[in-house]
Amino acid sequence: MNGDRWATVLGFLGGAVVLAIVMWLVGIREMVDALLSVGRPALVPVIFLNAVFWLGAWGMALRTVLGALGESIAVHRALLVFAAAIFSNNVTPFGQAGGEPVTAYLISEATDSEYETGLAAIASVDALHFVPSLGYALIGLVFVAVGEIGFNRNVVYASMAVGGLVVAIPVAAFLGWRYRYKLEAAVVRVFTPILRSIGRLIPRRDPPDAAVIERRIETFFGAIDRVAGSRTTLLEAMGFSAFGWLLLCISLWLSLYALGFSVSFAAVLLAVPMGAIAGITPLPGGLGGVESVLIVLLVPTTQVGGAVIGAAVLVHRAATYAFPTVLGGLVAFSLGLGQRTE
Question: Which of 11, 61, 140, 314 has its CA 20 to 30 A from that of 179?
Fold first, then answer.
């Protein structure tokens, strides 16, 4: 078994351990009882159907960005490719940071485009997702703070995280755009010797030429420029992203409603984006970490018992983590990932 597979296996084992600890702290028997006493079982298929629409919305965001880069892709194929992207993120450590190189390959295979174009497309989509997520988190934070619950320790921590991201992300985007040419030159200067050294270690392969590496890095930054320079693309893709985030929030709210509890939607608006931040942990897809954040934030802001919250989170994650991972895995291997990466 190679190193990548060991990393995946160990990551899932770590995530399973974290999830088991969380369930033990909340109460495994109580969570099972809550799951078995679903008051509205007819809503469970609706939750999974909602996940399909979420994949479609974010798939359309990817399709919009690819269109700005001159790569056309059918609507249904965009949905499937994005499901494959979710798969790669969910089975590699550090979420998008670990999965996007694989996702770029899948996009290039699906659209018959250069690898750098696929990498620029998925990197642009990831960046655009931050804006509506922070917007929803701010809205949820305001309504939770002025509501009956008010501020508590966990909400204070969440507000500090939201405030920090609201400041850091625009500043980083501004500086990255203003000094993009210097950034591009620095990337070429740093990565060219590294990539050539790696190329020398690969049997029966000549190390890549410095000019080729520079051209491919410039292709990536050029694609980013084209996306950032199109206001129509940015607004359209961000609209699909915002709709997808709303569907994710609806998924969690419906999961609680299916168990017989109607909670403030503001609490869900705050919890879902904050839970997504846990996806950058070393655990595949944030397994264990996302569930922990959702439970920690929803228990004090909804006044619902931890066992019920935990059960609802499991239903929500089954629809938005397990289901797209299985679907995306089938798509990824249909694109030849299993054969070509070997």
Answer: 61
